[in-house]
Amino acid sequence: MIELGKKQTLTVIRKVEFGVYLTDDKSGEDKVLLPKKQVPDKCDIGDEIEVFIYRDSSDRLIATTNEPKIMLGDVRVLRVKETSKIGAFMDWGLEKDVLLPFREQTRKVKAGEDVLCAMYVDKSSRLCVTMNVYNYLKNESPYGKDDKVIGTVYEMSDNFGAFVAVDDIYSGLIAKKELYGDIKIGDRITARVISVKEDGRLNLSVREKAYLQMDEDAEKIFSMIEKSGGRIGFTDKASPELIREKTGMSKNEFKRAVGRLLKEGRIEIGETSISAK
């Protein structure tokens, strides 16, 4: 069976002026054309050729010896060539661009942008790509607790946090409580593995362990104080929401960092403010 979206080794069964026909069975009933410009030199009937199968501009199955940037079930970063009313056309290394339909976009994309995608076959038996890559990512990664990883944020959830494709291959999540800074879909981030779930998915954090993060947080707070003229108008008694809004830290992290600065004699805490000494 000739399979759409995959590489296959097929046999030449017929030579024509515009190329050769290939098949994977002796009957030759299931066959596909390899255009003349891609036929190897001295190719003859009975020769085997490794090809990739896709559809041409007329929606006919076609073979190519060119290497696509993505195949069926893969997750890869592709560049947007242009956008249209039906979606975005992505460069995947072949003559005919592949479609990223509007309904498969997790955010609006623009020409020239690199986007993480997975390839699938749509209801019309055409190859398309989607930004909803969750079901295409692998669970069993080589990473363990406290390992540093790099990945692409592919989805943001108000309930769960940021979904990350680690190495653009493995499934990871930065839980809502671990989210800091302006993280958005498409960002490449460095994170720390805080645990590995039973199913192999990775729980991540963009922050270091508490004792390592404390120094960095302390310097961030002191810098905020200096930039605000030597004083900020809230203390560690402020609401967690205000502290998160102003510093990007949890209340406990803020209190630890303020405690470090206080111990070092660099600040003094008033009723409603913190000042540099």
Give short descriptive properties of this protein.
single chain; 277 residues; mainly beta; OB fold (Dihydrolipoamide Acetyltransferase, E2P); 4 domains; 5-stranded antiparallel β-sheet; 3 helices; 38% strand; elongated
- Described by the principal axes of the CA atoms, the overall outline is elongated
- The count of strands amounts to 18
Number of domains: 4
Give the topology string: H per helix, E per strand.
EEEEEEEEEEEEEEEHEHHEE
Distance N to C terminus: 77 Å
In DSSP terms (H or I, runs of 4 or more residues), the helix count works out at: 3
Sheet bearing the most strands, described?
Answer: 5 strands, antiparallel
- What's the CATH class label of the largest domain? Mainly Beta
Give a written overview of the molecule.
The chain is mainly beta. It has helices spanning 210-227, 240-247, 251-263; strands at 7-16, 19-23, 31-35, 48-55, 61-64, 75-83, 87-91, 98-101, 114-121, 127-130, 148-157, 161-166, 170-175, 188-196, 202-205, 231-232, 267-269, 274-276. The chain folds into four domains: 7-64, Nucleic acid-binding proteins (OB fold (Dihydrolipoamide Acetyltransferase, E2P), Beta Barrel), CATH 2.40.50.140; 75-134, Nucleic acid-binding proteins (OB fold (Dihydrolipoamide Acetyltransferase, E2P)); 137-205, Beta Barrel (OB fold (Dihydrolipoamide Acetyltransferase, E2P)), CATH 2.40.50; 210-276, Arc Repressor Mutant, subunit A (Orthogonal Bundle), CATH 1.10.10.10. The protein has three helices and 18 strands. The protein has a five-stranded antiparallel sheet with strand order 3-2-1-4-5, with no helix packed on it. A five-stranded antiparallel sheet has the order 8-7-6-9-10, with no helix packed on it. It is elongated.
